[in-house]
Write a structure and sequence with these properties.
Helix content: 25-40%
Structural class: alpha/beta
CATH topology: Leucine Aminopeptidase, subunit E, domain 1
Radius of gyration: 15 Å
Largest sheet: 7 strands, mixed
Oligomer: single chain
Strand order of the largest sheet: 1-2-7-6-3-5-4
Length: 176
């Protein structure tokens, strides 16, 4: 599914983010930037050890923030590492932290003058964020960014399985 927002495009696809050819892909990292399971592990495996070497030099990243490295062997040029919140019931600022993880990633892409960025569904795996709410936050943040910034031309959400893709499609239809 693809929609125009201002001068940009918001795209939803089912697939493997490590195969994306956008200028940057976003990694759902942990705060130590230590690699891990899910998307994080897949990106580090596909990109090779140079990404981890750069992460070690950076040292860490607080929840809701983002840092950037080169992309090693990946097709993308950069990996933006962002830390989403662990979901603990929703009363501990999780929504604001998740919104910030997406927004800070987009700001970093803009600072680097990147035109295209691909996101996974941040915090919805081992961090247990409810998928519908996470999709709504992610998509609203992306739409708001495209409406107020003309530098990024493409924001793509690369969703690993069909069920996640369908939830994102449903939430995007509600927003638009």
């Amino acid at each position: 599914m693809e929609v125009k927002v201002n001068k940009g495009t918001l795209s939803l696809v089912q697939g493997d983010i490590t195969q994306e050819e956008t200028e940057a892909i976003v990694n759902a990292a942990n705060s130590r930037l230590a690699g891990g399971a899910g998307v994080d592990g897949a990106i580090h495996r596909a990109g090779g050890p140079s990404i981890m070497d750069e992460c070690r030099q950076i040292g860490g990243c607080p929840t809701g923030q983002a840092v950037i490295t080169t992309a090693g062997k990946l097709k993308a040029r950069y990996v933006i590492h962002t830390v989403g919140p662990v979901y603990r019931g929703g009363g501990r600022g999780e929504a604001n932290l998740l919104r910030s993880a997406y927004a800070e990633s987009l700001k970093l892409a803009s600072l680097r003058k990147l035109k295209s960025v691909a996101f996974p569904a941040i915090s919805t795996g081992v961090y247990s964020y409810p998928l519908g709410e996470a999709a709504r936050i992610a998509l609203k943040t992306a739409v708001e960014y495209l409406r107020s910034h003309e530098d990024i031309e493409l924001i793509r959400f690369v969703l690993f399985d069909r069920g996640t893709y369908e939830v994102f499609v449903e939430e995007l239809r509600k927003i638009l």
